[in-house]
TrEMBL record, chains A, B:
Organism listed in the record: Rhodanobacter ginsenosidimutans
Keyword Cytoplasm: yes
Pathway the protein takes part in: Cofactor biosynthesis; adenosylcobalamin biosynthesis; adenosylcobalamin from cob(II)yrinate a,c-diamide: step 2/7
Cross-referenced Pfam families: Co_AT_N, CobA_CobO_BtuR
UniProt keyword annotations, A-Z: ATP-binding, Cobalamin biosynthesis, Cytoplasm, Nucleotide-binding, Porphyrin biosynthesis, Transferase
Reaction equation(s) it catalyzes: 2 cob(II)alamin + reduced [electron-transfer flavoprotein] + 2 ATP = 2 adenosylcob(III)alamin + 2 triphosphate + oxidized [electron-transfer flavoprotein] + 3 H(+); 2 cob(II)yrinate a,c diamide + reduced [electron-transfer flavoprotein] + 2 ATP = 2 adenosylcob(III)yrinate a,c-diamide + 2 triphosphate + oxidized [electron-transfer flavoprotein] + 3 H(+)
Record bears the keyword Transferase: yes
High-level lineage: Bacteria, Pseudomonadati, Pseudomonadota, Gammaproteobacteria, Lysobacterales
Major location (coarse): cytoplasm
Protein family according to the UniProt entry: Belongs to the Cob(I)alamin adenosyltransferase family.
Biased composition, class Basic and acidic residues, residue ranges: 9-20
Signal peptide positions (record): none
Name recorded for this polypeptide: Corrinoid adenosyltransferase
GO-annotated molecular function: corrinoid adenosyltransferase activity
EC numbers, comma separated: 2.5.1.17
């Protein structure tokens, strides 16, 4: 290396050392250890898949995990096939919904199914044995008023202090965003579907 | 049920039937079957975890999968522990980076590591045996010019037509967004870290 290159490397090292000090100080300020409520919402891709990624992380740590899928539809084949393997090995996996409302076309039945799913979810939120609970597409049932928001926020508030909960679905109600710790809006920049590409196995399915 | 309730049910059924027809027509128009390039970017949570969720879906379909993590840092413990179990069983998992630049503070070494990671990734993108390839945090290396964008877009263009590729990381360059099929910006609505909560196992770790 030339003297100039060595100088540049040294300046890089110093700049990165300052950045490291800054990041380290920020990390040192975050000292609270407790279960968090994560909400993934918005119209973009990645709400459920991110929930399933966190499920994988949680299983990787040996956590006891629970999943309730509030909408089955045709959009859960890959993850269900995959995660079902871990049932009885740290995971309870419930697919409770039957499909989107325009698929079933039967509102009373949809409400019944949503409330049955909520009863399973509420039991998990009340049980300190669960370290991680994923409530996939719960927001859809909240938006339609099939489940009362107050029931959900009460159950979240009363849950075991170290339990993590991930809630997904479009249109997260403001009252849920308010009580959540981390909320992400998945925003569409572009989507293959609009270009005529079918939902793909491994990506959407 | 009263007559009014029966009427309301019927109106719901008709509305949902119209919605179903609309959705069915949209789905019918999306006829193309091919591998897609998915990019998860933005400052919010869920970019990598969504990639790992799609990895789970892909493994659920029996796909041959490859993962290259361009940044190791301390942020990959849970997913690595979990997915390592599938090595040799449909999955090749490579953790190539050493950490964020402010952790290593050695630019030449960071560039070497990024390029070594890219060579592994490029070999996967050239190999029709891989159905699904996750390039986790590749965007970070692109933003820093440790890997040339042109190399990446060329490799994506030349890859097997049915191969899916998911690329994650903040600051996806415009040239990558342009060639991608589906791009999502994960936008922070709120984050637990800002409220003093440490990165949590199963959620971030």
């Amino acid at each position: 290396m030339s003297a100039g290159e060595i100088d540049a490397e040294e300046r890089h090292r110093e700049r990165m050392q300052r950045k490291k000090d800054l990041v380290d100080r920020k990390i040192a300020r975050a000292t609270i250890e407790r279960g968090v409520v994560v909400v993934n919402t918005g119209n973009g891709k990645g709400k459920s898949s991110s929930g399933f990624g966190m499920l994988a992380r949680s299983l990787g740590h040996g956590f006891r995990c629970g999943v309730v899928q509030f909408i089955k539809g045709s959009f859960s084949t890959g993850e269900e096939a995959f995660f079902r393997r871990f049932e009885g090995d740290g995971l309870d996996y419930h697919v409770m919904g039957e499909g989107f409302t325009w698929e079933t076309q039967d509102k009373s039945r949809d409400i019944e199914k949503a409330q049955a799913a909520w009863r399973v979810a509420a039991a998990m939120l009340a049980d300190p044995a669960y370290d991680f609970v994923l409530l996939d597409e719960l927001n859809i049932a909240l938006v339609k008023d099939y489940i009362q928001l107050q029931q959900v926020t009460d159950a979240l508030a009363a849950r075991p202090p170290n339990q993590h909960v991930v809630i997904t679905g479009r249109g997260a109600p403001d009252g849920l965003v308010e009580v959540a710790d981390t909320v992400t809006e998945m925003r569409v920049v572009k989507h293959a579907f609009k270009a005529g590409i079918k939902a793909q196995k491994g990506i959407e399915l």
